[in-house]
Amino acid sequence: MSSDFFEMEKTSGTARRGRLHTPHAEIETPVFMPVGTVASVKAVPQDTLEDLGAQIILGNTYHLYLRPGVETVRQMGGLHDFMSWRRAILTDSGGFQVFSLNELRKVTEEGVTFRSHLDGSSHFFSPESAMEAQIGLGADIIMAFDECTEYPADPARVRASLELTARWAARSKKYFQEHKHEVPWKSSSQSSALGRQDTQTPRFARSDNDGAAQRGDGEENTNGWQLGTDNWQLLFGIVQGGMDRNLRKESAERTIEIGFPGYAIGGLSVGEPRQLTREIVESTLEHLPKDKPRYLMGVGTPEEIAEYANLGVDMMDCVLPTRAARHGLLFTSEGKISIKQARYAQDRGPLDPNCECRVCQRYSRAYLRHLYAANEVLAQVLNTIHNLSFYLDTMQRVRHSISLGE
Amino acid sequence: MSSDFFEMEKTSGTARRGRLHTPHAEIETPVFMPVGTVASVKAVPQDTLEDLGAQIILGNTYHLYLRPGVETVRQMGGLHDFMSWRRAILTDSGGFQVFSLNELRKVTEEGVTFRSHLDGSSHFFSPESAMEAQIGLGADIIMAFDECTEYPADPARVRASLELTARWAARSKKYFQEHKHEVPWKSSSQSSALGRQDTQTPRFARSDNDGAAQRGDGEENTNGWQLGTDNWQLLFGIVQGGMDRNLRKESAERTIEIGFPGYAIGGLSVGEPRQLTREIVESTLEHLPKDKPRYLMGVGTPEEIAEYANLGVDMMDCVLPTRAARHGLLFTSEGKISIKQARYAQDRGPLDPNCECRVCQRYSRAYLRHLYAANEVLAQVLNTIHNLSFYLDTMQRVRHSISLGE
Predict the structure, then answer these.
(1) Cα–Cα–Cα angle for B305, B309, B311, nearest 5°?
(2) How far A156 CA lies from chain B's nearest CA (Å)?
(3) CA atoms in the 13 A half-sphere facing the CB of A385
(4) Given A201, A229, A287, B29, which is the most exposed site by the fewest CB atoms within 10 A?
(5) Mean pLDDT estimate for chain B
(6) What ipTM did this prediction achieve?
């Protein structure tokens, strides 16, 4: 039941525990992926993310395309080198952001014209240009360019949208196969550029990769996995189909027919009731291959990510832990806390008495409340560290439960 | 040449290397003190400050008085417990901020009426209330309430101001001597309050103090120094006198006559030329006792703090490294860098090739430039870590040079 890059280690009911091999790192699944929009998980240094046990982070192609620009990242050797992150990275296709952030977008068969939220300038994304961008960014896992169907939508609209997504998926795959060798950590032009600039490279590039003195083709990465000629970026397909089980099934079948090393469920968490999300996830999972990783995009609360993992989802991402943290909303084993409340002003207790994170081990609720009330940057740093720790620990416990057959 | 809490270990020309014993920690001097305005060195977690080698940080009484309020900090056991910082803390008297931030202040013999910069509410600081606040905050070193003379000022104004400061110094000392036992980490009421709430106390209070199970009178702190009955907060006097050497001499003599365990030079870096600052520092130092610590308030650049240490200053603080960092201005061994500049957009080199800090060891200038341009919070975190590292390393090198007799 395993493919060459995805090993299934244990199943328990519908839940699966596995190991996903990506070009830069091995990932234990089910996994939660913190969102690092513009090459930074907001407010958290990379060494802290490592300490928290983050195995893979997500970058947003739309944001990176605008700032610092794909060409800059490519010149720097790709996202991994650019942001000094040696573990795995996934980039989305840009489609979701274009659809959700841009009111002035125009969709044609060819692609999407949209305006930058930064300066209003006009841009165009197609399956081909989205692949080109994601190859240039060089994440380990990249996503086909899809149309995220709005909610609610009538059946005809959902069908037309899923068919467009299917055609775009085929175009995405075709472009990727023809251009995958251009990924910066494999292309020979980049290797020589790196060699030329080696004396200016920060020291991590020389000291952190045990036994790997140089980047380039066939190089061994930190986890002993080969960045070899057969180990390309993994391009995942995306299933759409709105809130209709039959259209989800059809979208799954058509995406599988094109063929990808992994499949994502997109178009959820777009305003529908939570119960409906769950039903669509559950029914869509039935139509996805068991031997390939399944990625549920953009969910959810701590309870939800545990629930979806138990349904058989292998990968999830969500801005909730990081965004909520910046608004003072903190997840704990005793429920959600709004740290801005006056009741915490003299609360000497830790944020979560059952949490082992460095924030709960050191600071009181009173101090965290003060930092938030005083608008201190440290509030964002500490709150984000705690929320990410809570999410990552939640998924760690889920993996442990699956191993125990619970 | 040593007093019971200040040991002189080595002198080299006018420079001195010493060891200052405070209630919570021992400090190697000359020392640079990062500014932690409202109980946070902006953007930097306390464990990172420890890693950077910060021995003592500064809190601003004016800001803490407004938020979270002295009573809250006192109830939490003082600033050390409140912010979970086991090393030394110094608070200013609030005088400087009241003078520099408030245009609507009104000074009388009794004290200063001012308006909050947060909500415009009216407040009053006197030598007595400034002492009361600083005793409640519970820093290791606290400052007499002074009037920071504006620059420029005519001789009559400077004289009147230094005389007011002298009278306020005497009142500060009197109030402190009568109330010093009320410091939260010594007062018995606080000890029992802590005992009562022990089950709600974050774990660091129980696990980080080796061999010190409980806070209270006579407790041994992390450095083995006794929080004993003879080991009170250290109240320092402040020398004013504007830019006039003779008035500085007179202010020094009158402050020494009142008698303090340490002396600060205030009223500099208020707009005067740098050369004048240096002259006043040099001439004032001649009139300060050699066996007491000397604290130069609110300076300066990396070059200046090294220069002042060589003149015989033992302690310095400045917002420059932290504030400049938040504006993308970074100090390096090769000079000052404005990281926002486009020239760094694809610069793969470290910020400072001669710096061992975690930022220079891991990230490129291109990445730091991107974070700043994209207005990412991580820019503030990383830039501040580097600048503080640069300042603290500078002072470490100065101490080393003094030891070597250079």
Answers:
(1) 120
(2) 40
(3) 29
(4) A229
(5) 90
(6) 0.92
